[in-house]
Design brief:
With 140 residues, this protein is mainly α. It contains five helices and no strands. The protein has one domain (3-29, 52-127). Helix 3 (50-74) runs antiparallel to helix 4 (81-94) and helix 4 runs antiparallel to helix 5 (105-127).
Length: 140
């Protein structure tokens, strides 16, 4: 399997794992201790502050940049590596300002595997010639 195929596989795996993580997080919420369920309910029904609104809007913009750049990476567009990197860095930088999170360990583990795959994608696009035009497949 060549690097282009590996990159595409990793991008699709990252998307799938993120979707699975979100689904499992919602599905397994009822398995959390009652105190944590009460906390999540209180957080979801509370009014948002102006700072939280700004954080949500910024997160949605960065998430859109992430999705667009990952789609462009799937299409092997060389320029997409910089928006992908920037969106990943910014998402990690704003995460501490989102406040506490409560998730089932299974959902968190799947999300961590997705983060690991993001690192693999970054390694492929920055430290190999995967996105260069010189990457020719050899047929034997």
């Amino acid at each position: 399997m060549n690097n282009k195929s590996i990159l595409r596989l990793l991008i699709v795996a990252e998307w799938l794992l993120l979707a699975i993580s979100i689904y499992i997080s919602i599905f397994l919420e009822s398995y959390l201790p009652q105190e944590l369920q009460n906390y999540l309910l209180a957080e979801s029904t509370a009014e948002t502050t102006k700072q939280e609104d700004i954080l949500i809007i910024a997160s949605l913009v960065i998430l859109a940049a992430y999705l667009i750049s990952s789609i462009m990476l799937l299409l092997l567009k060389k320029w997409a590596k910089w928006p992908y990197l920037l969106s990943m860095v910014v998402l990690f930088l704003i995460a501490p300002f989102a406040g506490p999170t409560v998730e089932h360990s299974t959902a968190d583990t799947i999300a961590e595997i997705s983060t690991l795959i993001s690192g693999m994608i970054l390694s492929l696009i920055f430290f190999t010639d995967t996105l260069s035009g010189n990457n020719v497949e050899h047929v034997k």
